[in-house]
Amino acid sequence: MAAVNGNGLSGSPSMLLDGYDASRVYDEVFDANGAVRGAYSRIVERFSELDAAELQRLGELVAGEFRRQGITFTVYSEDEGTERIWPMDLFPRLIAAAEWEELARGLAQRVAALNCFLADLYSGEAAVLADGVVPGWLAVSSRGFERNAMGITVPHGAHCNIAGIDVVRGASGRYQVLEDNLRNPSGISYVIENRAAMAKVCSWLFDDHTVQPTEQYGRMLRSTLESMAPGGSDQARIVVLTPGIFNSAYFEHAFLARSMGVELVEGRDLVVEDHTVYSRTIEGLVKVDVIYRRIDDDFLDPVAFRPDSSLGVPGLLGALRAGTVTVCNALGNGVADDKAVYPYVPDLIRYYLGAEPIIDNVTTYTMWDAEQRVEALGRLHELVAKPVGESGGYGVLIGPHASEQELQAARAAITAEPREWIVQELVQLSTLPALAEDRLEPRHLDLRPFVLTAERTEVFPGGLTRVAMRRGSLIVNSSQGGGSKDTWVLAPDSS
Amino acid sequence: MILARHAEALLWAGRYLERAENTSRCLNYAANSITHLRAEEARVESELLVRTLGLTEELQAAGPLESRPQLIAFLLSDSDNPGSVVSSVSAVRENLRSVRDRIPIELWEEANGLYLRFPFLGHANDAPKELHEVLLMVRRACLAVSGVLNEGMRRDEGHALMVVGRMLERSIFTVNLLEASYSDPRGALDASRMLRLTSSTQAYHRQHGNAPDFEGVVRYLLHAADLPRSVRSCLSHAEESLNSLASGASALDRPRQRTALVRSRLEFGDISDGLSSAPVQTLSELALELAVLAGEVQAGIVPPLALAEIHSQYLRPGPADGAAS
Q1: Burial environment of residue A493 by CB neighbours within 10 A (0 to 12, 13 to 18, 19 or more)
Q2: Which of A257, A280, A310 sits opposite B4 (nearest CB)?
Q3: What is the mean pLDDT of residues A327-331?
Q4: Cα–Cα distance between A76 and A19 in angstroms, integer?
Q5: Is B306 helix (H, G, I), strand (E, B) or coil?
Q6: Is A408 on the interface with B (CB under 8 A)?
Q7: What residue of A is the nearest CA neighbor of B8?
């Protein structure tokens, strides 16, 4: 692979891309020879017409737009204040139509299998455990396994109505699933706002492509939730349940309620009487049919779960059992996106769907298997260790970046509690140009597409591209300094 | 049907929006007028303004105002003072933020934009040199928010409640101003001051000439049907908005009736008679009536069942209940 100096860019030298080094990993824009991949040729030309000052000015326009609109997220541990402006880099990510079509099929397949797993498990039959596909002890020891969910009927058997599946591309350029998010995946609002901002500030970039739109998500989500209403979707009253304005994803909760045209409620707005959930309006109590909850299981109902929770609705579990209301995503989905269950998902696809997985997992070692543990601990300096109970990139040990002391501590922790860890081969995430001071430099990224499931499954085109803004960093989470990019799924007839 | 919590947030967004504008106007007046007053007179003027804004208790907590910069800091940027401009603007933003799914995007953006301009003002005790520009900016931004409210918001319950909040706050301010003006220890029954503090000078001059008399201005600010800041006009708008709320909101019947009653007393003479014989007592009673009305509106929209009551149906008694038993 070769470094790119701009001379190969359709004969148009670009100061911005001078010295762009695409030689280390799979780069989304430049191939191993430094040539521009087909889909990106016009984008690269367009960016080569800009200089750093202009790109920075456009970036400031976007930031100003986000600031004015209050498009923010919250970082809890910061002293400087709770809200941060959503970071977006202007160089878009492109996905060709055929590439997306295969990826979408793979995502739908994966979510279908995970829904089968959840339905099987919580129906009480649990054939998947009896047949030894997933160890029974592993499933029931998962923090996400919720005994209170046993026997609760879920319309269409769709336990996971909104899934966010994190996919990455390694050195080969093939997509692999890094993580499943089946409880409260966030980020979709930023996908839509990123597009809106790009369309406002860089509308000229869209001239050369036909890009699949994003504004239909509210309609898709509402339709999905309506069909989850007990007894059918006619006149279903849907609410979005938020922990409140101080939650890190509050902007998204408000965005979703507004784009669906439904109420955004807090726990204190809801009350259960006679096993039926009502919202408290100025005209009295009004029945609620579907709750799109954005709070965790533990906080949903202080009677059944954490008694100190003031976020939830006392008596909600009883209403769920009575079948008078549907909570989306369903209770107990955490067992299926437990990192410890992740290695078994390809087998779940084979077991429930009788098909080979369209998208592979990242090679993963289960630490409760003594043989795999010994091998992984011996190579820990080359691998990635993840605590199964953490999210947001916290607690992850990246072997090649870790000190000997950190490696020793991780080995000790894994040996002490092997159930709490998985170890994976290090995926050198693919890169895409991002603005770094006065030039575009390669930055690692992932992709979180969103899958909606009720009567049928729909994969929303594109997803949230998260990008590590520090050189060489593999941590893309916004809470740890990551940024984002607009993700373009090109229409079949687009260049 | 609007959630009770949303109703409360919109009502208070309306009140705080009006409060931000009122405080800005008072501060602008004070910053100019106090400059020409001797120390004792300046102190009296400051206290009158604080009383007009209903911030007497907050001032007691903050300590005496001994200088012009202290007054400016107290009214502009003191975050412990819920009536300061900064607190009011923050409260508008926080209330609208909690309902941003149901208000026009432009309304949220205007309120958010106003809030975002404040970090640049400096610390609480530093009176900004460009005070006039800052206050002008606040008042223009408040007008912009009002404009979006009037022109861009569907005439639903949320709109009605924001209007009710604004009209309540405005009428309370006007009555407080009149009452405080009668009680001026300097004995200066200053008609021009009342007109300036209600942005009504031009309107009054056009209708009644440019030599205002004190009692004429008091009656004008109470009774004028065509003056947006008169108490009668405020109550008419509030009444209209309360009536537009769905008939199912029976808890609002009482404030509806009270609004109509007070408005008709202003319109048909009862209060006017009282002004002639015992103006301070009449204004005090009117202020009390408005305070009760504000309380009834609040009680009419808050959830009928308190959170603690709901929890008590399902959870064991908390420490307080346990101690009582």
Answers
A1: exposed
A2: A280
A3: 97
A4: 37
A5: coil
A6: no
A7: A282
What residue has token string 């006392």? A314
CA–CA gap between residue A46 and residue A227 (Å, rounded): 44
pLDDT score for A79: 52
CA A412 to chain centre: 30
CA A250 to the chain's CA centroid = 16
Q: pLDDT digit string (tens) for A273-320? A: 999 999 999 888 999 999 999 999 999 999 888 888 888 999 999 999
What is the Cα–Cα distance from B47 to A55, expressed in whole angstroms?
54
B217-226: list long-range contacts, CB under 8 Å, 24+ apart: B217/B191, B218/B178, B218/B181, B218/B194, B218/B275, B218/B279, B219/B272, B219/B275, B221/B174, B221/B177, B221/B178, B221/B194, B222/B174, B222/B175, B222/B178, B222/B266, B222/B271, B222/B272, B222/B275, B223/B266, B223/B267, B223/B272, B225/B267
A139: enclosing H helix or E strand: helix A136-140
Q: Judge if ipTM > 0.85.
A: no
Q: How many helices (H) and strands (E) does chain B have?
A: 17, 0
Hey, are the CB atoms on B157 and A282 less than 8 Å from each other? yes
- Which residues in A lie closer than 8 A to residue B303 (C-beta atoms)? 268-269, 280
Nearest CA-CA distance, residue B92 and chain A, Å: 14
Q: Do A315 and B314 touch (CB under 8 A)?
A: yes
Q: Tokens representing A145? A: 């396994």
Q: Residue A398: in which H helix or E strand, if any? A: strand A397-398
Strand bridging mode A290-293 / A238-241 = parallel
B 26-55 residues with CB < 8 A to A: none
Q: Tell me the nearest-neighbour CA distance from B152 into chain A, angstroms.
A: 16
Digit-coded pLDDT (tens) for B106-133: 999 999 988 888 765 544 445 566 788 8
pLDDT band at residue A192 under the 50/70/90 scheme: very high
- Residue A363 DSSP code: P
Cβ–Cβ under 8 Å, residues A120 and A127: yes
Q: Is A283 on the interface with B (CB under 8 A)?
A: yes
For residues B269-276, give the mean pLDDT. 81
CB of A81 within 8 Å of a chain B CB? The answer is no
Least confident of A159-168, A263-272, B66-75, B207-216: B66-75
Interface contact flag, B112 A279, Cβ < 8 Å? no
> Using CB atoms, which residue from B101, B112, B311 is nearest to A314?
B311
Determine the Cα–Cα distance for residues A160 and A331; give it in Å rounded to an integer: 9
Residue B290 CA to residue B301 CA, distance in Å, equals 17
Q: Under 8 Å CB-to-CB from A482, ≥6 apart: which residues? A: A87, A466, A467, A468, A469, A475, A476
Asked whether A280 and B3 are in contact (CB, 8 A), the reply is yes
Helix (H, G, I), strand (E, B) or coil at A458: strand
Rounded Cα gap, residues A115 and B46, in angstroms: 68
Give strand ranges (E) for A27-135. Answer: 72-74, 83-85, 88-95
Q: pLDDT by residue (tens digit) across B12-51?
A: 999 999 999 999 999 888 887 777 777 788 888 888 889 8
Strand A175-181 and strand A162-169: the pairing is: antiparallel
- Please give the structure tokens belonging to residue A117: 């797993």
Which residues of chain B make contact with A287, given a CB cutoff of 8 A?
Answer: none
Q: Do A284 and B304 touch (CB under 8 A)?
A: yes
pLDDT of amino acid A13: 43
DSSP-derived letter for residue A312 is S
